[in-house]
Amino acid sequence: MRFKNSKYADIDDELFSYFLKMREKKAQINTNDLKSKALEIGVGKGYDRFNASNGFIRCFKNRYNIHFTELYGDAGGVDPAVCSNWFKKISTLIENYEDKNIYNIDETGLYYQAESGKTYISGAEYANKDLRGTKKSKQRLTVLVGASLSGEKLPLLVIGKSAKPRCLANVSSYPTMYRSQPSAWMDSNLFIEYLNRLDRKYFVEQRKCVFFIDNCRAHPPIEHLNHLQSIQVIFFPPNVTSMCQPMDMGIIANLKVNYKNYLSKSKNLHLENDQVFNVNVLDAMYFLKKSWEDVKPSTIQHCFNKAQFIRKTVVVQSADVPNDVVPNENEIEDLLDDVGPSESEIEDLLDQVTRFDDDFLPTCDSNGLLNSQMDSLAEEPHEETEEEIRILKSSEVLQHLAELSKFLLLNGIDSNTVYDFKSVAYDAIASCKKQSLITDYLIKN
Asked: DSSP letter at 209?
């Protein structure tokens, strides 16, 4: 698209210089900022009739290829020098640990009942000017996510407001760990409890691990973590986690995408069969468990590599093997003679197998039919009675499934078993197709 030259070219040049200067300082510029600055420049140059109209600002943006966008994340506020120094230290910090013992853990908030709010709509809906969305749920959980450099995943910790939600009453086991906090946020007591559980586990396994965590105020200071026997805690530098923390490189984002997929799939299945769909804390915990299982170890490893968790290159030199260590041909033959059965033992074994076949396998006559040994096993066929089986509708299956799940949970059945059973039923309902009857094709008089 071609644009004619501006009548106020000098204002354009000075306004664009101002814009570049402010963007170098990471300032956020909007239309009102450009209009006010343009008016200030115009008054200073003596243009009495210049009013910095919307048309002038629009043409100014087009002439200088200026775009309006939304800035995401907080990586723009990270000091590159601090990140560079940290990247140089990582290889030294992890050199004494195996990949499976190098962990990163972080918390994230989850609006477990809310969907993305974006959807496809028909042309008729698009033409409707009164098309409106619905209010998003603000019910929130905090989820602690952790994994190692090798791709090993730590159990999720879910934090809610209620100490005993109704959906968890009489439930013997939960899909994930659950704790409560008045604001549904992580605090130092919950964090220390989680690390203590892992520390006891690693102590029994005789493992030495290192945990990299951020400087969130909910995390206790290093002095309160000195009692850990098998875990060393290292804090990231302040305000660099968006560039240096593996969890922020895509692991948590992958978990949330998987969760939204499970939530949307389950909701659409219920709506398709005219059923009410509600998500409680127990449902959210199961969806999180399945979503965490769907995160691939390769994804976790790539995120650690992106955060520069890379070891120094080590050149392994081959050692010279003494000649007296390498066995000669005669020694090898002696070793082979000592291993396994002899030839006579193998012949005896084959004879026993042959006799077993002759005694127990049924023989065949010249016509290729089995002999009377098989005839003795034949039984008279039973008379089959035809019973009409009524196939349940999908909506009926969902109703019975909800009642059965509630019954099983109230009677102490493991929640993972119940939700796995529900997941199989959901997949069956989604994949099944109604089979047409032959009578559907007959012409009725």
From this structure: E
Q: Is residue 400 part of a domain?
A: no
Q: Of 349, 32, 93, whose CA–CA distance to 244 is shortest?
A: 93
* 333-341: long-range contacts, CB 8 A cutoff, minimum separation 24: none
pLDDT over 60 at 356, yes or no? no
pLDDT tens sequence across 370-423: 444 444 444 445 454 455 556 666 666 666 667 676 667 666 676 667 667 767
215 and 254 co-located in one domain: yes
Cβ-count burial 186-196 (b if 16+ within 10 Å, e if not): bbeebbbebbe
Whether 87 is in a domain gets the answer yes
The verdict on 59 and 90 lying in the same domain is no
Packing angle of the helix pair 54-63, 9-24 (nearest 10 deg): 70
Does 178 fall in a domain?
A: yes
- DSSP output for 135-162: PPP--EEEEEEEEETTSPBPPPEEEES-
Other beta carbons within 10 angstroms of residue 297's beta carbon come to 13
Tally of structural domains, the chain: 2
Identify residue 343 by its one-letter amino acid code.
E
CA distances from 125 to 120, 131, 192, 268 (A): 10, 7, 52, 19
Q: How many CB atoms lie within 10 A of CB 436?
A: 8
Residues 44, 85: one domain? no
Domain carrying residue 28: 9-63
